[in-house]
Amino acid sequence: MAELVEASPAPVAVAALCRRWGYPVRVEQWLEMADEALERLGFLPSEDGEDDPEGPPGPRWASGRRPRPPDTG
Questions:
Q1: How far is CA 5 from CA 14, 16, 59, in A?
Q2: Which pTM does this prediction carry?
Q3: pLDDT by residue (tens digit) across 14-41?
Q4: Does 11 fall in a domain?
Q5: How far apart are CA 4 and CA 34, in angstroms?
Q6: Which of 14, 40, 45, 50 is the most buried (most CB within 10 A)?
């Protein structure tokens, strides 16, 4: 799957993934949703041209605390 995504143009890869997992093949909609998510996460500049003064978010444990490991019982 990773090879398909890396070697194919985004619309081709999205269409193939939709067919594989039974999602509707609405390539433009899925790509738009992905761009919005990447923008919210700070990986793409916002479309309105405003820069985020804080920069991209850091890891969730940026406060110096790491999350607790899962309780394995």
A1: 8, 9, 25
A2: 0.56
A3: 999 999 999 999 999 999 999 999 999 9
A4: yes
A5: 17
A6: 14
